[in-house]
Amino acid sequence: MNFCPQCQSDKIVKSGVINSRQRYKCKSCNYFFTVNKLGKKIDQYYVTKALQLYLEGLTYREIERILGVSHVSVMNWVRKYNIHKVQNTGFHPTYKILNQTELEQFFSSSENTKGSGMIVTELGDKFMMIKWERFKE
Ligand SMILES: [Zn+2]
Questions:
Q1: Which of 11, 76, 90, 100 is deepest in the core (most CB within 10 A)?
Q2: How far is ligand 1, taken at its centre, from the CA of residue 50, in Å?
Q3: What is the mean pLDDT of residues 42-66?
Q4: Cα–ligand 1 centroid distance for 109 (angstroms)
Q5: Could you write out the three-class secondary structure of 13-26?
Q6: Residues whose CB falls within 8 Å of the CB of residue 39, separated by 6 or more in sequence, listed in order
Q7: 12 CA to middle of ligand 1, Å?
């Protein structure tokens, strides 16, 4: 199966021939491309991580920076999987990228773990810790 190089959608249609190369159009993002540029499918791992981070309150740009996938892709996945962020005003997430040792050091101090919720998720060879803190009055 083929995928749009810009947004990884599989909703592509043939759209004429340019310089004797088949041209395609992506119906999701309206991007035109030739067969040479056909995208490789992005690992489902990154799709899952991106949606996880989106639900945690990170912006598209932040997710792009962290995962190295285009924010356009993330926007398309959010639409494709019909993900709705929960409205939240009382907490804000911060995140850190840590290696194994840094993670251990972080958790060894109760100052770091008191009064906030956290999740740790694998991110390549490191870990990402998302921490929720109440807005200070
Ligand atoms: Zn596309």
A1: 76
A2: 17
A3: 85
A4: 46
A5: EEEEEECCEEEEEE
A6: 2, 3, 4, 5, 6, 8
A7: 8
Residues 23 and 51 in one domain: no
pLDDT greater at residue 117 or residue 127:
127
Question: What whole-number distance in Å separates Cα of residue 15 and Cα of residue 23?
Answer: 5
Query: 31-40 pLDDT, tens per residue?
Result: 888 765 555 5
What is the C-alpha separation between 122 and 97, in angstroms, rounded? 10
Q: 34 lies in which domain range? A: 1-41
The verdict on 60 and 35 lying in the same domain is no
Cα dist from 70 to 12, 21, 25, 77, 109, whole Å = 18, 26, 19, 11, 36
Q: What is the mean pLDDT of residues 78-100?
A: 84
Mean pLDDT of 81-96: 80
Mean pLDDT score of the chain? 83
